[in-house]
Give the backbone structure.
Amino acid sequence: MTLVPVTRSISLDEKELHEDFLRSSGPGGQNVKTLCVNADVTISLTLAAPPEKSVLQC
């Protein structure tokens, strides 16, 4: 299990995350349409473990 740190007290299992890298649409400057310039990260709540009580007591 590889954990991705979010804050000092919160980490997510990388299996809970899904990343998409997208190209920009429409007019733009140099390399905008040729490079993936948008990163979209989604957290799967169905795969995520419930938070610990210490996290809920912020």
